[in-house]
Structures are given as C-alpha cells and as structure tokens.
Amino acid sequence: MRCLPALFVMSLISTAGPVVTAAVRLASPFASHMVLQRDKPLSVWGTADADADVTLTFGDRRATTKADKVGHWSATLDPLPASGPLVLTATANGSTATIDDVLVGDVFLCSGQSNMQYGLGESADFAAVAAMPLPKLRLGKVGVRAAAEPWDSCDVHWQAASPAAAKDFSAVAYVMAHELYRQDPKLADVPLGMLEDCVGGTVIESWLPKPALAQFDAKTLAMSMFGIGPSALYNGMIAPLGRLPLAGVVWYQGEGNAGEPARYAQYLPLLISSWRQQVAQPELPFLIVQLPDFAPDWGGVYWQWIRESQAKAATATPHAGYVVTVNTNDGWNLHPQGKHEIGRRLALLAREVVYHEPVPGRSPAFKSATVDGHNVRVTFDTDGSTLTSGTDPVDGFTLAGDDGVYHAARAIIDGPDTVVVSSAAVPQPKTVRYAWAGVPRSTLSSAAGLPVAPFRTDDQPVAKGYGEIQQSPVGYVFKSPRYQLTIDGNGRATSLVVGFKQLLSNADAPWGGTGLAATGGTRYLSEIHPDGADGFHCQGGDVSANLRFGNDTIHWSITNHGGKDPVRFRVALSPQVEVRNGGSIGMIVVRRKDVAVTFTNVDRVTTFDDPAADVGGKVLEVTVPAGQTRTIDINVSR
After folding, report:
1. How many whole angstroms separate alpha carbon 409 and alpha carbon 110?
2. What is d(CA 558, CA 622) in angstroms, rounded to the nearest whole number?
3. Is 13 helix (H, G, I), strand (E, B) or coil?
4. Does residue 560 sit in the same domain as residue 621?
5. Per-residue confidence (pLDDT) for residue 333, from 0 to 100
6. The 375-381 sheet, strands edge to edge
7. Do 304 and 440 form a contact (C-beta atoms < 8 A)?
8. Rg of the chain in Å (alpha carbons)
9. Which is more confident, 621 or 469?
10. pLDDT in tens, 166-182
C-alpha cells in the first residue's frame, strides 16, 4: 500500500476538535482558491463571539445569522450559477474573516485508499495530461487525521491546477477532471473542484461513522494499517466537511477489504447513505471504481468476488454507478501506473449519472440468461450502445451444469445486446459466468469502448483459500514472505514482485522478464520439473537452469552444456526501477521506492529500446561460456 509513517499517523489520533471563539472565523473547509458548489443552497458555518450577529456575503448573495451561546453559527446562501472568482466574507462585532479567489462550479469529493491517493506524477499519464491548461480546475486536499470522535475542523488546502500541483495530486481525480473538460464542451466555462480525501492502506470501516457500524459485532470490524480503527478517518476527514454541498462522490477503495466481500456488500451501501445524510443530499451521486485486474489472492479470495460486491451496491443504490476497470493493467501491480483509462471511464459515467447527458456512460451489464437446449442466450443492458468483441468467438464465458463445475465456453454475439454461449463439455447448461477471475481473459465490450461487467448467475458461496483456477500469466509460482517469482511455460521469469511492486519488465517476449540468448537465437527451457517444494529444474537443448528459493534469496544457476557457443542470460527490468552499482564487482542493486533487490555475479548492465513495440529499459546480463555454469544470487530486502 501507499503508506504513511506509522508514528506520524498515530500522532494524528485525537479525541476531540478544538472550539474556537472570539474573532469571527469561517470553518476550516472554507479556504481561498476553493470551488463551491453551483446551483445548490450553500451552507456556510464558523465561530464568533457568543450571541454575536454575523453577516455573510458572497458575490451578490447575503445572509445574516446569530452565533449561539458557545459561539457557533451557520447560515445558508441562495444558490449561485457557475461564476467567479468571488470573495466570501463573514463579519461580526467589527471582526472580519475573508477567503478570496473562490470559484462556483462543481465539486467532487474523491475518497478511498492508495489507488485514489496515487499521485499523477507517479503515473504513466503525467506528461500528456498535466500539459493541458485547465484554468478553471482547482485541486483540494484534506489533511490526514484519524480521530476517536468526530471533529469540527480539518486541514484543507486548495490550489489552482498546474503541472507542479498535479504531480502530487490524485491521478484518478485529476484525469477524470481532464477528461470531463475534454469530452464535454458544455463544461468549458464551469469550474471543477476535485477534493482529494483519502488514505492509503485503509479499510472501509475507517470511513464509516459509528452509528452506521453499530449493527455489527465490534470484534469483526477490521482495522486499517497503522492502527487506524473503525470510524477514525470518518471522524477526522469526512465529518469536518459538514454540509458542504457536492456534485458527486468518487469512491475508489476495496483492496483492503477484498478478503471479506460479503461484508463489504453490507458496508458500501451504509457508507453511501451515511455520507448523503451528512451533506443533506439524499440523491448525491456516487461513482464507484470497481477493482482492476490483480493476479494474487487477497486474504485467500480473488478479486472477482469484491468486484461483485461493488457492483451489487452500486446497482441497488439510486443515483449511483460503477466503473468497470478490467483490462486496464497487466494484473501484477497493486498500484497500476496507468490511470488514464480509469479517469476516462469515470468521466463518461459522471456525464450520465451526474450531468444526465444522453451518453453510454455505463458498461454493459448482465440482464438475463435463458437456457435454449444446449445453448444459453445472455442479454445485456447496453446503456444505449451495442456489443462488440476483440475476438471471434468472444473470450471470457464459462458454463456449468447441475454439478456447478464450470467449463470454458464458446460465445458468439447475436444482435446488439445478446450473446449465445455453449460448451461441448456442458450439454445441459444451468448457469453462466463471465470475466470471473482476478485477471479475466475477457473481450466483450460496448461500441463506446466500455468492457462488459463481470457477472455470474449462480449462488455458490465465496471461494476462500485455494481451489479456483485463475487466468493469470503464470506457469509456476514460488511465494515466500518476501517475494513472489513467476516462471512461464518457456522457463522465463515473467514476474518478480516484492512488496506489491513489479521489478521485471512485463513487455511481451523477447523484451520482458528473463531470457536466454545464443548464436542460434532465443533459447527456451520448456522442460520444467519442480524439485520438491523449493526448486525448479528447466532444460532446453544443451542449456539448463536450476533455481533454488529461500525466504529472501534466489539462487539461479545456468549451465551451458554445449561445446562451442556462449549463451547470455538476460534480466529485463521494469522501467520504474532504479539501477545502481552495489559497491563490489558484479553486484547490482535494483530499487523501486522502498523495495531493493541485490543481484550478484552480473557481468554488465545494458539497455534495450524498441520504438516500434514502445518498450525499453535496463537489462542485467550474464554470459555463460560453453561447458560452464554461472550462478546469479538474488537477495531481497525491503
């Protein structure tokens, strides 16, 4: 997860917010350079002397109110259309509080955990997206605070959009705004305020108020990382926003709860209703980001089950929708770099759910399934679009009979919203699934470019632990507490994941992962034999490899049995890693943020660049002369 230092987070855990009296003040959510919601009554509040008369002005809107016995006051201003910049002023007993450069437009609260927090500067989209001038976009951030009880203040900072500001701002939120301006000319003159309110490594329980969690056994409530308990982030980061009006909420969270999908299906509707109640907007739109491709299990559960919970919650809730994000990454990185497609899909969904435009903003979703002899006819709600596929027949469908055992199925598009599914292995089909895997091989989409949502028609319980075949770029996998190494059917390492960070290039062969090059071309070691629980033996012609695994080490021996030509063992690294000399001959340190892996006995570091394939990066190379064995030792540390 994208983590905050534990001591820092723990220092933020408090019991109550301060009470400010005397000089008139606007509440902490109100800050210069912010965006306030257009076309809605504007609730404004703050503090002043006890019983003081307070006058509030904003543009040509004006309201008066009176502070209570402890100095709290609130007032409501009449709605304003998109406009600004304006000045918001509160006066009382000769004291004045002012914030300036305030725009009136649409405000989106963007919350969740690390994939919402993931900064645009870390994403592959930074250069292209940040270069587009967005003069009416404002970026707001709520400071991280965990609290035992609801606070009445928080740290909110707003600034105008710029490449420098965008770098550390939520990539998903920024790209969504970028895409709204790009897609919708009607928003050209409408200010957008994206308010980032998220913390990496958190579970949904931390974002729910205590009353919403009262129906659950406290012993079953999960804790977020760093000891952040249930309701703590709601208390410190959501409650202080009061009744600040919003255009919508974007929620990107679920990784932390993926091991308990049934419980998440109960929590998410409660979060939606609780937040709507707080801001007094019962029809506040919620845009939910369904989790993307991810190969490893989470708490013994693969991600198709948490996606189902997210879809159920969004479908059952009026004025809500969800973005399908399968096929947006390779499935290995918990924090995918590419956020642009997710932002594009969010913008399409917002245009339909928030702005009520006649655009196909939702992915096609399952509507009905009818058994017709040996076939199953599946119809979809296509949201005004039509079905299409990148393959013929369509990939991604499976069928089961009375035994509940699923088999791969052949699927053919039959009309704008129908697919006919069949399997010779299931002559009497009963139920159907689509894209039902952590990393599904699925090709059905709408003509608008939105993938069909994963679904199933059975009611089998969540499969925990092992026992599910998952589509994944794997042949053999070794897991230790420190790393996970994957070997494909050709004896190539396609993935080395440490701390949820991919260290190898995931480009297609011959550029990705490891490879063996010789005078005769690429050598494949497709004869693979596991040697007990902690080793592999791979063979291909006159070259073999032996791999031995420890908790934090890998010993990789390459033997060239030939009598003439050398072979080169290549390790193609992820473009996101840093490579440096380890301080002694043959030692190379590969680092990606807080993860470091040391390779020893490396002959050289080279680069590869294939503009046609749009791939490139660093390569570690070891030459194995004829008749000799070379061993590369890999040590994992974090």
Report:
1. 39
2. 9
3. coil
4. yes
5. 72
6. 365-372, 375-381, 418-422, 410-413
7. yes
8. 28
9. 621
10. 999 999 999 999 999 99
Looking at the structure, tell me whether residues 62 and 180 fall in a common domain.
no
94: which residues sit within 8 A by CB, 6+ positions away? Answer: none
| CB-based contacts of 271-277 (< 8 A; 24+ apart in sequence) | 271/204, 271/207, 271/208, 271/212, 272/313, 272/317, 272/320, 273/212, 274/208, 274/209, 274/211, 274/212, 274/234, 275/238, 275/249
Is the Cα dihedral 505, 507, 511, 515 positive or negative? positive
- What 3-state class would DSSP assign to 161? coil
The total of other beta-carbon atoms located within 10 Å of residue 390's CB is: 11
Tokens describing residue 407: 């088999």
| Tally: H helices and E strands in the chain | 10, 41
Q: What are phi and psi of 369, to 5 degrees?
A: -135, 130
How many whole angstroms separate alpha carbon 471 and alpha carbon 385? Answer: 28
- The answer to whether the CB of 173 falls within 8 A of the CB of 118 is no
Give the integer Cα–Cα distance in Å for 171 and 164. Answer: 13
**Residue among 129, 139, 24 at smallest CA distance from 73:** 24
Question: H-type helices in 145-285, by residue range?
Answer: 163-167, 171-183, 210-213, 232-233, 261-279
Q: How far is CA 398 from CA 343, 352, 383, 533, in A?
A: 30, 31, 24, 32
Q: By 3-state DSSP, what share of the chain in percent is helix, strand and coil, each rounded to 5?
A: 20, 35, 45
Q: Tell me, what amino acid is at 256?
A: G
| DSSP annotation of 394 | B
Please tell me whether residue 116 adopts helix, strand or coil conformation.
helix
Co-location of 262 and 310 in the same domain:
yes
Measured between its terminal Cα atoms, the distance across the chain in Å is: 13
What would the two tokens of residue 5 be?
A: 């230092």
Interatomic CA distance for residues 63 and 54, integer angstroms: 8
Q: Which domain holds residue 513?
A: 476-637
Q: Is residue 342 in some structural domain?
A: yes
pTM: 0.76
Alpha carbon distance 304, 481 (integer Å): 24
Q: Are residues 27 and 54 in the same domain?
A: yes
**Based on the domain organization, do 188 and 170 belong to the same domain?**
yes
Is 235:282 a contact under the CB 8 Å cutoff?
Answer: no
Q: What is the pLDDT of residues 558-611, one digit of tens each?
A: 999 987 889 999 999 998 899 999 888 999 999 998 899 999 999 999 987 766
Token pair, residue 367, equals 């509507």
Same domain, 571 and 607: yes
pLDDT digits (tens, 9 = 90+) for 342-401: 999 999 999 999 999 999 999 999 999 999 999 999 999 999 999 999 888 999 999 999
297-337 confidence digits (pLDDT tens): 888 899 999 999 999 999 999 999 999 999 888 776 788 87
